[in-house]
Structures are given as C-alpha cells and as structure tokens.
Amino acid sequence: MKKIAAIFTLLLLTTFSYAQKTYTVSGTVKNAAGQNLQSATVFISGSEKITMTDENGRFVFRAINSGTYQLVVNMLSYTPVKQNVIVNDDAAIVNVVLTNKQTLLNEVVIGARKPEMRLTLKLL
C-alpha cells in the first residue's frame, strides 16, 4: 500500500512540474495624435487569441505562455501594425500607434433615365 501511495505522489508531483506558468499581454492602441482608439482588432498571429480595444484603447490577453509572439493590430482606415512581443517571467505591456492610411478612390458616376411610358386609350 505504501508503494502505491509513493507512486501516486510521484506522478502527482511530476504532473505539477510540467504545468507552465502563464502571463498577461496588455497595452493600448492610439493614433498618431495620441488619441485612444476604440474597437481596434488585436490578435496574436498563429493563434486563435483575438480581442478588441475598449473605449480607452486598452486590450488584454490572459493565459499566454512564455515565448515570442507577433501581435497584429488592425482598424479601418489605419495601416495595420505587426509587433513582436517577448513574454517571459513577467507581464508584457505593448503600446501601439496606428497611422492613417490614405486611400484614393476612383470616380463613381451614377446615371438615371426616365423610363419610357406609353398610354393607350380605348374608346368604347
């Protein structure tokens, strides 16, 4: 019985030793004028972790294992930003500045014609 308890304890300890500590990656997204950008999409490339910035331009990813990741920030009418983040032994804080993307649109011509109508009168 003591052998079974010893084996069980050994297995339990090895299981806990393989558990990895996780960290937090957080930060803010601003424009070139220093204004916080709400609803910017932030994701970690190559993973399913995705979030959006709040009304103060802040975002948070929890339960991130240590390693090097590529953070991608997108927002309509801004140039996307890719930034490498190293996560190890502490929470990572990332501040991102997005610049306006200039988009030139082609001319759009809208035309309309009055439909041709015919009236036919029948006399009785």
Provide key terms for this protein.
124 residues, mainly beta, 4-stranded antiparallel sheet, 3-stranded mixed sheet, 1 helix, 7 strands, 14% helix, 38% strand, elongated
Q: Explain this structure to me?
A:
The protein has 124 residues and is mainly beta. Helices cover 14% and strands 38% of the residues. It is built from one helix and seven strands. A four-stranded antiparallel sheet has the order 3-2-5-6, with no helix packed on it. A three-stranded mixed sheet has the order 4-1-7, with no helix packed on it. It starts with a helix and ends in a 26-residue tail after the last strand. The model has no long low-confidence stretch (mean pLDDT 86).
Q: Structural class of the helix and strand makeup?
A: mainly beta
Overall 3D geometry?
Answer: elongated
Count of helical regions: 1
The topology string of helices and strands comes to HEEEEEEE
Q: Segments where pLDDT lies below 50 for 5+ residues?
A: none
Number of strands: 7
The largest β sheet comes out as: 4 strands, antiparallel
β-strand percent reads 35-45%
> In percent, how helical is the residue content?
10-25%
Distance between the termini: 114 Å
Radius of gyration: 29 Å
Quote the average pLDDT. 86
Largest beta sheet: strand ordering? 3-2-5-6
